[in-house]
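TLDc domain-containing protein (Vitrella brassicaformis), 309 aa
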Amino acid sequence: MLVRAVAGLLIVLCVVEGQQVHLRGLQEVTPPNGTSLSASEYEGLLGLLGGNDTTELTSLYRTSVHGTTYGDLLDRVGDAKPIVLVIRKDKYVFGVFISKGLLLPDDRTGSNFYDCQNTYPCDLWHFSLAGHFPKPTKIEIRPVIKRVEVAGREGNVSGANFIIGTYQLLACGVVAESGLGPRNKRTAADIRSCAQRIPMSLLPEGYTGEKNSSWGYALFGGGSGYFTADEIEVLQVRESIDQPSPPMTTAPEPVDSTPTITPQPTTTGPISAPLTTTSDPAESAAVCQGGLRWGGMVVAMLICTGGLL
C-alpha cells in the first residue's frame, strides 16, 4: 500500500492486488526528463516496482533520440542497474525489469548467459503498462526459465542482440525472416526488430491483447510474435535513500563504578537462509511442450538441454 500526500492536501491511495495495480484518484507524478512515458504510465510502473517517495527513474536511452542500433543502446546504458526496458508498439506499452542490467561478455564477438535462479541470482519479470490488461500488470517469469543472454557488441545470441527468458520470451535485434535459432548468426541492424511471446496459461486474468490461440501464446507486440517497435526506452531505477546518511551522534556512556565488569555476549541478526533451487518435472515438461508448439523438435531439444530459443 502506498500513501502519498501532495502539497499537504491531496492524498492518493494505490492498492496492489495480486499482480495488478489499481490506480485510484489523480496522483501528481512527474515523469523523468526525456522519457516517453506518460504520467499515468509512469505512475503504473512505479506501482509495479513497489515505488514510494524515494524511488526515482532516469531515462538513459531512447531509440527516437539516441539511435536505433545495439551499439547506440550499449553506449547509453553501459553497466547501469537495475534497469527497466520499455517497448512501445501502437497502443501497447510493455517490457521487462532486470535487476542486474545487461551484463556484456568480455569477448566482443561472444555472449554472456546468466541464470537468475541458480548461478547469478537476480530479479527478472515482464510487465504491461497499457493495451493488454485493464490495469498495469506484472508477469512473473517461471524460475526454471528466469535467464538472460546478452551478445557482445559484435556478437549475437541465436539471432538476437539479447534474449530475456525462453518460454516467456522477449528478444530484440531479431531478423524476423530467419527468426530465432542457434544457427542464426546475424542480427537486425535496427534493435527495434523484436520477438515476444508468453504462454496464456502464465498470465493473470483479464488479458485483452493479441494472441495465437493455436499455440496458446499471448503476443504483446501483436502480429505473429515478431514486430518492429515504435520506440524502445531504457530507464534506470534509483532510490534516493541510498544516499549516505549524516553521521550519528551518541551521548557518552556513563562511567561504571563497579570494580569488575562482566562482558556481555554479543549477538548478530539471523543468518539468511541458504539459496535453494528446485527442479519441477511438470514445469520442465511444459517448457518442452511449449518449444514444440513454437518451433518444432529442434527448439524443444534446445529448451530441454538448457539452451535458448
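The first strand starts at residue 2 and ends at 6. Residues 1-19, 21-26, 241-309 have pLDDT under 50 and may be disordered. ok done for today
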